[in-house]
Amino acid sequence: MADSAQLQIDIGNTVRASSAAVAFLWTNWEHLYALNPGHIVTRRMTENSWRSKGFHGSGDFYLVRSYFEPMRGSFEYYSFLSFMGASFRITTELTYRRLDREMISFFGRSKGLYPHALRPIHWLLHNLAARAAQYVVRVGGQTATRITDKPSILETDIGEECYKKFLAFSGEEHDIESGRGRKYVYFARPDPTSEVSPNKTRMADLENRVAALEQHTLVPNGLIRFGEYHTAISLFQTDPGMALVKNRTLVEAIAKHVFEDEIGQISDARMLGELIDLIAKRCKRVPGSILALMRTVSLLGNVGGHVAPGRDGANAVTEVEFAVSFMATLRITEWYLGEFGTVIERTHSK
Q1: In whole angstroms, how far apart are CA 324 and each of 163, 238, 247?
Q2: What is the pLDDT of residues 264-278, one digit of tens each?
Q3: Which CA distances in Å does 316 have to 58, 108, 311, 313, 329?
Q4: Domain residue limits, the chain
Q5: At what angle are helices 240-262 and 272-282 packed, to 10 degrees?
Q6: Does domain 198-344 have CATH number 2.60.40?
Q7: What is the CATH class of 6-178?
């Protein structure tokens, strides 16, 4: 039986297309739907965000992470959706892998929680989401093949600028495969001498996630201050241990509000671990996955409180520990905004 709280859609396909075609479409969604008018209407809002309407819903989605090269690529999106007056968020990860010179395989997974108000009819929302995903897979695969075989359709159907951009994608893929050394705008070419470290890339990804959530959140009670989330990311650069403590503080404020909203007044002396145990026993509204994430943040916060500044030594806090803690904190925040008093802003396509 399907979980009435958890939404998950898996997709996959194998098509004859270039990596450039797939990467181009996954970073230029407005062109995909312009070439396939009908079920979904999409327009670009910013360099990495789009607004869509279709299959009885609407929403905005953001590309928060991407890495692609000729043999493989991965993309992650945050989507803020509206259906039957209820708002919710999903995360989508898309990956592709080249099988040979002609064929490419791709896989995608979208996950999120159904809006509380729509859980009694979660089956309907799941069916619509599955239909939309199947449509995207079908037209996406067909379009990737079409523009691989005949790039000029982009110029005739959309415009010269779109066509030239795709030629740039294709040119980079060809040059990398040919071993030509030059600066690449779109494709990545692993380079150990690169000045952009994995740490900087990961921190930028976290900043993008906060910015995407912040843009779509109304916070009438002021409990969630997104500046504090940016502070946690900045703090990691100078004091990684205290950054973990900061994450724990953010989650502790949410846990206290959940307890008071669902159960009653609580002493300020309660530690986060105690709060989580009480919530688990007395509040059925909090999913087990959220409680597990709260415990993760709590435990890492305890570790951070006993680590001296600096990142040298076996007990140092690395970007891995911080990313786990911060992503858990952000997921808890997103859940809280959708369930307890604050509202994720509903989006409308124009």
Answers
A1: 40, 18, 10
A2: 777 666 788 888 999
A3: 44, 35, 5, 6, 20
A4: 6-178, 198-344
A5: 30
A6: no
A7: alpha beta
